[in-house]
Specification:
By secondary structure, the chain is α+β, with helices and mostly antiparallel strands. The protein has helices spanning 9-12, 34-44, 65-74, 106-113, 142-151, and strands at 27-28, 48-52, 59-64, 88-89, 125-129, 136-141. A hairpin with a 6-residue loop joins strand 2 and strand 3 (59-64).
């Protein structure tokens, strides 16, 4: 077993991201008020929302709800501000992203979260897309992986 995988890897037994049963992605737009994005995330108990272009539906970045709450508490943003003021942008030029699909083995997903398999550093979540990266299908978190391991029979 490589250093990028844990003892959990033994419990995956061929499982893929699809076995996590990630909830459908909930995306917001850069021009939506932060208050609306917060309400949607709260209603679904989501820790991250993807941000997509209004015109092309291209993935632009994401909102981390924990970070957003910190920004609101510090006064850096207000609920009436637009999502674009608080979102974290994906770097487009010079950066190669690891494609995470429903068929990605959980060992690879764990390595991605730990900074391996092209993660470029520890990651809190993964955007799950189709093979061609045209559609956001869901978001998987490290917590989802931990819950899967806890409920998987030994």
């Amino acid at each position: 077993m490589s250093q990028s995988t844990s003892t959990w890897a033994q419990k995956y037994r061929g499982a893929t991201v699809e076995d996590l049963d990630p909830p459908a992605a909930l995306s917001t737009k850069p021009t939506e008020p932060i208050s609306i994005a917060l309400m949607h995330a709260w209603q679904r108990d989501y820790s991250h929302l993807t941000v997509i272009s209004e015109d092309t539906r291209a993935l632009l970045g994401y909102l981390n709800m924990s970070r957003l709450k910190e920004l609101l508490s510090s006064g850096a943003v207000r609920e009436t501000d637009y999502v674009e003021k608080a979102m974290q942008n994906f770097q487009r030029s010079g950066k190669v992203y690891r494609v995470i699909t429903m068929d990605t083995p959980l060992e690879e997903l764990e390595a991605f979260f730990n900074g391996g398999v092209d993660g470029g550093g520890p990651q809190d979540f993964a955007v799950v897309t189709d093979d061609n990266r045209r559609f956001v299908l869901g978001v998987a978190t490290k917590g989802d992986l931990e819950e899967f391991v806890k409920r998987r029979p030994a």
